[in-house]
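Lab notebook page, bench 4
Experiment: in silico fold of construct C2
Operator: M.H.
Input chain length: 211 residues
Purpose: comparison with the prior construct
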Amino acid sequence: MRMSAIQTQNAVILTVCSLASAHAQSLGDPDQSYLSRYQGRHAHVAVVEYVDASGARVEGQRTFTAEKPFRAGQGPTIALAGLTLRLHGIEACPTDRVIEVAVYVGPCSGALTEYLNGELKAAPIILCRAFATEQQKPVQDVTCWNRYRLGPVDIVNHTESALLETGAARLTRNKNGQAVRPELEPAEAKARAKGSIIWNPRAGVPPPKAP
C-alpha cells in the first residue's frame, strides 16, 4: 500500500461551523516550526490543544508519548491512552466489498483504518485541536495535522484532507446531502474524480446527492 501521507465539534450553541474552519480564521494551520516545538525524546508524540469557542486561543493541552506509532481505532478515530480522538466530519466506506486497486487491496470499509495507520506510522508528531468543551469527554471531536519526513524535507499534512484525497474516507453529510465539513469538499472531489477506493465502481458507493 502506498501510504497516503506520501501522496498528499461540537462548538457551543453559537456556531455550526466546523472546528477546522474556526481554526483557519484564528490560530491558522500549524506549520513545521509550530509542530517542532513538541518534538521530544520519544519516537512519537501526540498533542491535543483545546481552544476557546472563537478558536483564537489555546486554553489547555494534553500530550501523549510513545516509542511505537499510535494506532487507529474504529472508524475515523485515533486511540490514545484513556482517550479516543474522532476526526470530525469524515467517515469510513459504508460497504465491505473488496477493492483491488494499485493503492489498496481489501474491503472498502477497512481502507480508512489502514490509511490512517499509515499516516500515524509515518508521523513522529501529531497535533490535534478540539474545542475546550470537549476536554472532559472520553471521545473528542478533533481536527489533526501530522508532521513527517519525505527525504530531506519535513512536511505537515492535514490528516482529514489526506484521507479524503486518497479515497480512504468520505465526508459525513446530513440528510440533505450537505457536508458537515464543507471546506473539505475539494479534497473529496479529487478522489471522486480519480475513482479512488471508496469511489471505485467496485465499492458500490453512490456519489453524494446534491444539497
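Observations: Residues 1-25 have pLDDT under 50 and may be disordered. The chain is about 20% helix and 30% strand.
Next step: discuss at group meeting.
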